[in-house]
Amino acid sequence: MTSREGGIRISLVRSWDAAEIVALYRAGGWWKDEYDPAEIPGLIRGSFAFAVALDGTGSRAVGMGRVISDGVSDAYIQDLVVLPAYRKQGAGKALLEALLSACKEAGLSWIALVAEPGSEPFYRELGFLPMKGHVPLMYRGEP
Q1: What is the pLDDT of residues 10-32, one digit of tens each?
Q2: pTM for the whole structure
Q3: Cα distance between residue 141 and residue 64, in whole Å
Q4: What CATH number is associated with residue 12?
Q5: HEC states along the chain?
Q6: What pLDDT is attached to residue 32?
């Protein structure tokens, strides 16, 4: 666990309260009503690394992020989000640093993410650069 200013702490976890994780996905605009909260434990366990930012009491998740990887080659950071009331306090940076550290400790050097529009300055400050000549794509079904 890493301490941060403002009482925010970061912890890498293998499980967490599903309702809190759903609230974070909602804050990011990524949760749909048809999603099943019962799948959250598997999502956390199936991640290479899953980090939560904890409030000053250390009992409530106010941010999260995760890494998808086979642990051998590439790593993708996903789902980095902080509740609006806790933004601009260093929690996002601390989450990203914890996830990067987990990747580097495992020997993973190819680490990527797909950033939301407008968030590039945040990621650039932490060492991420655009991948010139590459375009993120998403499968949407049969053509």
Answers
A1: 999 999 999 999 999 999 999 99
A2: 0.92
A3: 29
A4: 3.40.630.30
A5: CEECHHHCEEEECCCCCHHHHHHHHHHHCCCCCCCCHHHHHHHHHHCCEEEEEECCCCCCEEEEEEEEECCCCCEEEEEEEECHHHCCCCHHHHHHHHHHHHHHHCCCCCEEECCCCCCHHHHHHCCCCCCCCCCCCCCCCCC
A6: 94
pLDDT mean over 58-83: 96
Asked, for residue 123, whether it belongs to a domain, the answer is no
Q: What is the band of 3 on the pLDDT scale with cuts at 50, 70, 90?
A: very low
- Cα distance between the two ends of the chain: 46
Q: Which domain holds residue 96?
A: 2-114
Q: Is residue 8 part of a domain?
A: yes
User: Is 131 among the domain residues?
Assistant: no
Overall number of domains in the chain: 1
